[in-house]
């Protein structure tokens, strides 16, 4: 699979922030994290903070996997509406899923306060809306349920929304809390810098090619035939992590993103909030600290007649067409912004689980392994939760969230 492609904003606007050695001799640790994307970095942060002797290994450049194509919107709402999620998993668990993401935004804010680089993090308001008259009832129902469950939401009808936004809205839910945004690439390096201070060892450009579960430990072999002996392995290999399982645990799409040049004024965009519509696939927008607009969406499902989408083979025209469609959408969102000019176009494989929730925890087929497969549009917030849940599991406490995020659910 070609995980990412194009001119990715985060790695184009930042230099390579740090480089790490490859493994030159056999070594040992208590926990080996495979995967140096944002999820592996968050886990490394929490594990080393707890004093656990940890190694993080990546086969590539740290932070250059899916993380480099992430829009990095951090929101309490998951991929499914609360009304839909309650049908799938029950009201109590659905509300728990939303509340855990809201808590993760606060936890991430706390982490940022301890990092030297603030990673362009900012708290945001967010707006979820429909432009279809036929979906107004759905948005009303969703609003009522969120309000009953204590989320800080405001209902905007067509007229109220037109006072705030320059694009057509029939109904929407405006949330005053529970959302934020970040530069994911800087976040990875800021976390790792902190974790190194607490003893983390990082191995870059080193692939784990073999894994042998022995008596009470796991032996990992690298592509240069060095060995890491570890009590536990933590899998944070992103969408490649699905390969550990025969059963399909994630549906893959390719998602497309544009980022503009910095613009002068955000006319027609109330409070520069995070925006998402209720289409399938949905479109989402955010800004950046240097006044760019990021718009994402136009996802194409991978598989069947779209199997070329996985490798990006012979489909340049399709890819270009998705960027054009996104660009047109952007203009229709903000007709009053005169200086909209696209500077970066990129795309990445994206995955959704059947309920929008991640897979975090142990799996019966893999003793001595922790899995941290944070799929879905809330991947980073799931990573924040996973870092804490897996750290506690390692230290002997089984948190209740393990039930919500378990395999075979
Ligand atoms: C287009 C797009 C938009 C997104 N938008 C959002 C968003 O708005 N908000 C949000 O929260 N999340 C979003 N996400 C998801 C979020 O970014 C993901 O959770 C994240 O990208 C996955 O991170 P990861 O660290 O698990 O994977 P990756 O970043 O892919 O890191 C996995 C690493 O594992 C390494 N690896 C794999 N196999 C091996 C091996 N055998 N040996 C050594 N190393 C190995 C790879 O080299 C890679 O660097 C988005 C993702 C995409 C692609």
Identify every distinct bound molecule in the structure, by name, code or SMILES.
flavin-adenine dinucleotide
Spans of at least 5 consecutive residues whose pLDDT stays below 50 are none
CATH class of the domain at 4-70 and 185-248 and 356-404: Alpha Beta
Radius of gyration: 21 Å
Task: Name the beta content range.
Answer: 25-35%
Task: Name the overall outline.
Answer: globular
CATH level-two architecture of the domain at 4-70 and 185-248 and 356-404 = 3-Layer(bba) Sandwich
Order of helices and strands: EHEHEEHHEHEHEHEEEEEEEEHHEEEHH
Mean pLDDT: 96
Which structural category fits the helices and strands? alpha+beta
Textual characterization of the structure:
The chain has 409 residues and is of the alpha+beta class. Among the domains are: 4-70 and 185-248 and 356-404, FAD/NAD(P)-binding domain; 251-352, no CATH class. It is built from eleven helices and 18 strands. Strands 1, 4, 5, 6, 7, 12, 13, 14, 15 and 16 form a ten-stranded mixed beta sheet that branches. Strands 2, 3, 8, 9, 10, 11, 17 and 18 form an eight-stranded mixed beta sheet that branches. Helix 2 (38-49) packs parallel to helix 10. The longest helix has 24 residues, at 91-114.
């Amino acid at each position: 699979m070609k995980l990412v492609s194009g001119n990715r904003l985060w790695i184009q606007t930042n230099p390579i922030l740090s480089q790490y050695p490859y493994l030159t001799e056999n070594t040992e640790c208590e926990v080996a994290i495979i995967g140096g994307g944002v999820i592996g970095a968050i886990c490394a942060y929490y594990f080393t903070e707890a004093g656990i002797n940890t190694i993080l290994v990546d086969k590539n450049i740290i932070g250059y996997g899916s993380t480099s194509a992430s829009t990095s919107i951090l929101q309490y709402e998951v991929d499914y509406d609360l009304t839909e999620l309650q049908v799938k998993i029950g009201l109590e668990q659905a509300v728990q899923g939303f509340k855990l993401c809201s808590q993760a935004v606060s936890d991430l804010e706390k982490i940022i306060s301890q990092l030297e680089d603030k990673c362009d993090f900012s708290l945001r308001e967010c707006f979820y809306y429909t432009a279809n008259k036929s979906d107004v009832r759905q948005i009303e129902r969703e609003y009522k349920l969120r309000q009953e469950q204590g989320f800080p939401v405001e209902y905007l009808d067509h007229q109220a929304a037109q006072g705030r936004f320059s694009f057509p809205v029939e109904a929407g839910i405006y949330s005053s809390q529970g959302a934020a945004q970040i530069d994911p690439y800087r976040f990875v390096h800021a976390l790792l810098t902190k974790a190194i201070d607490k003893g983390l060892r990082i191995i870059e450009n080193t692939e784990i090619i073999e894994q042998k579960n022995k008596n009470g430990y796991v032996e990992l072999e690298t592509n240069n035939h060095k060995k890491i002996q570890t009590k536990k392995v933590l899998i944070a290999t992103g969408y490649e992590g699905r390969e550990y399982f025969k059963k399909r645990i994630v549906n893959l799409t390719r998602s497309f993103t544009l980022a503009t040049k910095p613009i002068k004024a955000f006319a027609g965009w109330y409070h520069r909030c995070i925006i998402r519509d209720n289409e399938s696939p949905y479109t989402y927008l955010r800004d950046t600290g240097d006044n760019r607009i990021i718009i994402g969406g136009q996802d194409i499902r991978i598989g069947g007649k779209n199997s070329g989408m996985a490798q990006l083979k012979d489909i340049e025209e399709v890819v270009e067409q998705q960027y054009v469609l996104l660009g047109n959408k952007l203009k229709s969102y903000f007709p009053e912004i005169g200086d909209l000019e696209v500077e970066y176009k990129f795309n990445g494989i994206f995955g959704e689980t059947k309920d929008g929730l991640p897979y975090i925890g142990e799996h019966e087929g893999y003793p001595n392994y922790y899995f941290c497969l944070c799929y879905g549009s809330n991947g980073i917030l799931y990573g924040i939760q996973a870092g804490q849940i897996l750290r506690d599991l390692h230290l002997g406490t089984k948190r209740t969230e393990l039930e919500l995020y378990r395999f075979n659910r």
